[in-house]
Amino acid sequence: MTTTESGAPAVTNRFTDVASVREALKSVNYLADDGIAGVAFLADRLGKPILVEGPAGTGKTQLAKSVAEMTGAKLIRLQCYEGLDESKALYEWNYKKQLLRIQTERGTDGATEDWTDIQDDIFSDEFLLTRPLLEAITADEPVVLLIDEVDRVEVETEALLLEILSDYQVSIPELGTITATQIPLVFLTSNNTRELSEALKRRCLYLHVDYPELEREREIVLAKVPDITETLADQVARIVRSIRQLDLKKAPSVSETLDWARTLMLLNIDVIDEQTAKDTLNILLKYQTDIAKAAKELAVDE
Question: For residue 200, what are the contacts with CB-CB under 8 A and spacing of at least 6?
Fold first, then answer.
């Protein structure tokens, strides 16, 4: 294990500069701007997690997946939800296996072990079930840890994350403190459904990922949708951009833009006319009120 003089795991420099991060992400079809690439570079050099906030469907989760792919690291994902606790996020003891060991030890002829001896035995690594957070810091190979939709957990549950995010270690009462063998790249995503605690935010670099600019979304469509023409990709990006300007319950995400582009390709559409756009709005929008509003106000040059 590589550590600093203080005993903390050393920072490993995975990236040489911001430009190389952007190019590496592009090689796995994630089109990042300098802001995204810059924060990823700094997180690697500083050994700090990244808190990625923004509307749903703007590529926050995909960023972590793409970083794992481009670095060849193992992706470990903790999907957050209301009621998440340490037994699902950090670790828990294999109680059935512990009980079997106790019964075995006490059933052995001539066994004289007292409870202290048995306790030391059953609270060992052999009986520990690792969950995503503990798995990430005990892994020998490079790891990208994705803590997805962290805003879905209760404020109290955030405390489970603080020790890992600041010191990359986990304190287990029965075993002591387990320190990371390496510093994983950590991404926390949030859709802003609630305000996160200041303690959590202090430990992270901040990145806001919004809907892409017109040209970047066109490039994303070209990169992600095989055989699509530049003309159709440009039309898709422009129409989606105009729809996002409307007062909608849910604006179309980048993933829905790609679904729409793939749908048009399956329908052998080369140029989008007004009727085609209206007939396929259900691919982009998920509320009938939004579909009706977009259908009424959508204007497409034929």
Answer: 51, 150, 158, 161, 162, 165, 188
pLDDT band at 116 (very low <50, low <70, confident <90, very high): low
Euclidean distance between CA atoms 211 and 97, whole angstroms: 49
Q: Which of 191, 223, 190 is nearest to 204 (CA)?
A: 190
Residue 89: name the closest of 103, 99, 73, 78 by CA: 78
Work out the end-to-end distance of the chain between its first and last CA atoms, rounded to an integer number of angstroms: 63
- For the segment 157-162, the average pLDDT, to the nearest whole number, is 85
CA 30 to chain CA mean position, Å: 14
Q: Which of 243, 188, 177 is nearest to 211 (CA)?
A: 243
Q: Would you give the DSSP letter of residue 48?
A: -
Q: How many CB atoms lie within 10 A of CB 273?
A: 13
C-alpha 135, offset from chain centre: 16
Can you list the alpha helix ranges (DSSP code H) found in 123-229?
132-138, 155-167, 198-202, 214-224
- Quote the pTM value: 0.81
Tokens of 248: 């909608």
- Separation between Cα atoms, residue 214 and residue 38, nearest integer Å: 21
